[in-house]
UniProtKB/TrEMBL annotation:
Residues 1-33, 138-185 are annotated as: Disordered. GO terms for biological process: lateral root development; mitotic cell cycle. GO terms for cellular component: cytoplasm; nucleus. Keywords: Cytoplasm, Nucleus. It is found in: Cytoplasm; Nucleus. It holds the Pfam family WPP. This is WPP domain-containing protein. It comes from Digitaria exilis. Residues 42-139 form the WPP domain. The keyword Cytoplasm applies. Coiled coil: none annotated. Residues 24-33, 170-185 have a biased composition (Low complexity). The lineage of its organism: Eukaryota, Viridiplantae, Streptophyta, Embryophyta, Tracheophyta. The keyword Nucleus applies. InterPro entries: WPP1/2/3 (IPR044692), WPP_dom (IPR025265), WPP_sf (IPR038214).
């Protein structure tokens, strides 16, 4: 009897009275399965409410703009830009997940959960792609600056300027022909 109490509380029903008790004449409570079926139509996993979608956008902004693993690895995004980009990422992911659901509401909670998981994965994928592309775009100009070395600057000079910079005594670098024949003997 005590073992039934936790399950009964979870199902929203009361434990069955002991046989032969005075309460046994009362009408039996609705079964747990029927009560759950009555609640399921009102439980909608997909599509998420606007409040939920707004919470996703707020979390994306926080991930992009505030210190996070993503912002530490790929760089933080200024908050105004993060708000704009997060809203776009969420909207694109929602549209992609809605397409996968064939535009109709899923017939069961399980189907709704699958679409919600696809939405979540799409948000994550698009957010990571965005962070990587911003990081690569920011690194490209920095790499161009780093790669420009003094040798590159010399290449940009005119040929006349390059000749002026050559050492005057180029014979010091190579031995004279007479010295070369003397050392061979």
């Amino acid at each position: 009897m005590a073992e039934d109490a936790p399950n009964a509380a979870a199902e929203g029903t009361q434990p069955a009275p002991a046989e032969g008790s005075v309460d046994s004449a009362a009408a039996p409570p609705a079964s747990g399965a029927k009560a759950a079926e009555a609640l399921l139509p009102s439980l909608s996993i997909w599509p998420p409410s606007q409040r939920t979608r707004d919470a996703v956008v707020r979390r994306l902004v926080q991930t992009l703009a505030a210190p996070s693993v993503l912002s530490q690895r790929y760089g933080a995004v200024p908050e105004p830009e993060a708000e704009r980009v997060a809203a776009a990422v969420e909207a694109e992911a929602f549209a992609a997940a809605s397409e996968s659901a064939a535009g109709a509401s899923p017939a069961s909670v399980e189907e709704g959960i699958e679409v919600l998981q696809a939405y979540s994965k799409e948000v994550s994928r698009r957010l990571l792609e965005l962070a990587k592309s911003r990081s690569a775009a920011a690194a490209a100009p920095a790499e161009a600056i780093k790669q420009e070395s003094p040798a590159d600057a010399i290449k940009q000079e005119s040929p006349a300027e390059a000749i002026k910079q050559e050492p005057e005594d180029s014979s010091a670098a190579a031995p004279a022909p007479a010295e070369a024949t003397a050392s061979e003997d």
